C-alpha cells in the first residue's frame, strides 16, 4: 500500500513541476531551427525594417543557371 501512495505522490509532484514549467513559459526544442521559428513568430519586425527588406530582396534577380552540360564538362 505504501508503494502505491508513494508513486501517486511522485506523480503528483511531477505533474505540478510540469504545470509550473508550462506557466513560466519555459519550453524545450528538438533543434535550433525550431527555436528560430518560435522566436520569429514571437518577434515583431518594425515597419521600416520590413519595407527595406522587401526593397532589397525584390530587386535582386537570381543568378542564371548553368546548363547541365557545362557543369558536366567543368566549364
Number of strands: 0
Task: Report the oligomer.
Answer: single chain
The percent range for helix content is: over 70%
Give, in order, the helices and strands. Answer: HHHH
Based on CA inertia axes, which overall geometry fits?
Answer: elongated
- Cα(first) to Cα(last) distance is 80 Å
Largest sheet: none
Radius of gyration: 26 Å
Structural class: mainly alpha
Q: What's this model, at a glance?
A:
The protein is mainly alpha-helical and 75 residues long.
Structure description:
The protein is elongated. It is built from 4 helices and no strands. It has helices at 2-24, 32-42, 47-59, 68-73. The termini are far apart. The protein has 75 residues and is mostly helical.
Compile the SSE list and pairings.
Elements: H1 2-24, H2 32-42, H3 47-59, H4 68-73
Features:
mainly alpha, 4 helices, 0% strand, elongated
Amino acid at each position: 500500500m505504501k508503494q502505491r501512495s508513494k508513486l501517486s505522490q511522485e506523480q503528483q509532484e511531477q505533474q505540478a513541476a510540469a504545470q509550473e514549467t508550462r506557466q513560466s513559459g519555459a519550453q524545450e526544442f528538438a533543434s535550433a531551427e525550431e527555436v528560430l521559428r518560435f522566436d520569429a513568430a514571437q518577434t515583431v519586425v518594425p515597419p521600416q525594417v520590413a519595407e527595406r527588406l522587401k526593397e532589397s530582396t525584390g530587386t535582386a534577380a537570381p543568378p542564371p543557371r548553368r546548363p547541365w552540360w557545362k557543369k558536366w564538362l567543368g566549364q
